[in-house]
């Protein structure tokens, strides 16, 4: 495939946008080459500026769970836009989407909308600190919770890809309040809590990790965190920005039956518009301004276009619960197909999957935490990425990312993808 126009557009972009992109992983630094510029997208396909059609496995990093330009979502946005795009005043649709989200997700009474997953996680931690009157937080190596200062400590995907786990600009003062734990290692968490007795406000975790590839929690891990939090007056924050409204209607809390104290959302909840949200039981949420002392605000929060897209998306997912089953089955089909090819061709690999999240690692050991995820062969991944791209399959341009399956993918698309894998691995 030819990507001439994309490369020309990238050259122009680099003159006025740092690195030519507004979010680093888009720049292809980890895999080499120039990024693809998208012209439009429909269903499971991207159409780029050179006229290529690509089968999309990123789906805007998760939000487009029903495929691109899904008519009910697009129509809802168009209809709203005609009536004004922002007021900075309350609108009825904010209550509608809040009611729906609260009804779909277990264990939450109230929800507040913000503009990104980053904002949701940042605000959730502030709320946890305000509620518990403690300062320190525990996060896990390889988990990503957006780019706010407290989280840029071994932060998975983007940050890992660029070898800057601790970004300059994050002060030592901020970093010292973020304690780093190993994913899937309960004893490690326990010992951190012991040596910081009475100081920890919250544990924030991707309950299924998706930013170091896809890493499901081992049996008993989330349950163990829940007990530790209960025993030590620590709030448990599930960052469900990636997993919320994807792995089940009610996210990981529903799927794995473990309750969090605060849950954060993003991606799917906005239907492809900039939306994040955080939610908890009433007692905790009432600590937020204007009811309580913890400040949090946003000029464009609850924006009518964003709420219209989100409401249309959640409504579809709520009315057709079969969607989750259907995308899980598609993902399983893809998993089996790719595994078969890689085994036949004797390519060293580990495939992780849960629901509609899947990642292919070019390493033979189980991938269960950040260290084991980092063992994967990056050179092999680069070749794999470009091989797939040349056959019109767009996977994430980094070995640390999950592939997101959309309901728009057909079994023919999946077959084409498996065929592309089998051609690609010939030249690995
Ligand atoms: C994407 C992501 C975020 C950040 O969301 P943005 O909308 O990019 O700010 C936070 N947490 C997780 C788990 C994510 O996958």
Describe the model.
The protein is 39% helix and 14% strand. The protein is α/β, with parallel strands linked by helices and 428 residues long. It has two domains: 4-69 and 321-425, Aspartate Aminotransferase, domain 1 (Alpha-Beta Complex), CATH 3.90.1150.10; 71-319, 3-Layer(aba) Sandwich (Aspartate Aminotransferase, domain 2), CATH 3.40.640. α9 (251-256) links the parallel β8 and β9.
What percent of the residues sit in helical stretches (DSSP H or I)?
25-40%
> What's the mean pLDDT score?
95
Query: If strands are numbered along the chain, what order do they take across the biggest sheet?
Result: 4-10-9-8-7-5-6
- Reported by name, the CATH topology of the largest domain is Aspartate Aminotransferase, domain 2
Number of helices: 15
Low-confidence stretches: 160-165
C-alpha end-to-end distance: 19 Å
Strand content: 5-15%
Q: What is the H-and-E element order?
A: HEEEHHEHEHHEHEHEHEEHHHEEHHEEH
CATH class of the largest domain: Alpha Beta
Give the name of the CATH architecture of the largest domain. 3-Layer(aba) Sandwich
Bound molecules: pyridoxal-5'-phosphate
SSE class: alpha/beta
Number of strands: 14
* Quaternary status: single chain
Task: Give a brief description.
The protein has 15 helices and 14 strands. It has 428 residues and is α/β, with parallel strands linked by helices. Helix 7 (186-195) packs parallel to helix 8 (221-232).
């Amino acid at each position: 495939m030819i990507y001439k126009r994309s490369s020309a557009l990238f050259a122009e972009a680099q003159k006025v946008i740092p690195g030519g992109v507004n979010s680093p992983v888009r720049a292809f630094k980890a895999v080499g080459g120039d990024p693809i510029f998208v012209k439009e997208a429909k269903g499971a396909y991207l159409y780029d500026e050179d006229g290529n059609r690509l089968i999309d496995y990123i789906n805007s990093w998760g939000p487009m769970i029903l495929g691109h330009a899904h008519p009910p979502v697009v129509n809802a946005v168009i209809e709203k836009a005609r009536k004004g795009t922002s007021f900075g005043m309350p609108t009825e649709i904010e209550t509608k989407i809040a009611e729906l989200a609260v009804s779909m997700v277990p264990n939450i009474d109230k929800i507040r909308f913000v503009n990104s997953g980053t904002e949701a996680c940042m605000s959730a931690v502030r709320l946890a600190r305000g509620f518990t009157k403690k300062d320190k937080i525990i996060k896990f190596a390889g988990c990503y919770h957006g780019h706010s200062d407290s989280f840029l400590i071994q932060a998975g995907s983007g940050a890992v890809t660029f070898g800057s786990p601790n970004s300059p600009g994050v002060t030592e003062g901020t970093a010292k309040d973020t304690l780093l734990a190993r994913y899937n290692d309960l004893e490690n968490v326990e010992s951190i809590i012991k040596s910081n007795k009475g100081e920890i406000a919250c544990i924030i975790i991707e309950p299924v990790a998706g930013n170091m590839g896809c890493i499901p929690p081992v049996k008993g891990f989330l349950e163990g965190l829940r007990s530790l939090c209960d025993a030590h007056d620590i709030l448990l924050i599930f960052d469900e920005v990636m997993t919320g409204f994807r792995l089940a209607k009610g996210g990981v809390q529903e799927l794995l039956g473990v309750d969090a104290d605060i849950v954060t959302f993003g991606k799917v909840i906005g239907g492809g518009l900039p939306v994040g949200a955080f939610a908890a039981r009433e007692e905790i949420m009432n600590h937020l301004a204007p009811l309580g002392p913890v400040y949090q605000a946003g000029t464009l929060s609850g924006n009518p276009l964003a709420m219209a897209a989100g409401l249309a998306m959640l409504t579809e997912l709520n009315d057709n619960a079969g969607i989750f089953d259907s995308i899980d089955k598609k993902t399983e089909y893809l998993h089996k197909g790719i595994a078969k090819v890689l085994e036949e061709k004797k390519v060293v690999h580990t495939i992780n999957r849960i629901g509609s999240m899947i990642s292919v690692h070019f390493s033979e050991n189980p991938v269960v935490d950040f260290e084991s995820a980092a063992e994967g062969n990056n050179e092999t991944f680069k070749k794999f990425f470009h091989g797939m791209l040349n056959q019109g399959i767009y996977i994430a341009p980094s070995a640390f990312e999950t592939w997101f399956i959309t309901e728009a993918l057909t079994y023919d698309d999946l077959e084409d993808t498996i065929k592309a894998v089998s051609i690609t691995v010939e030249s690995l």
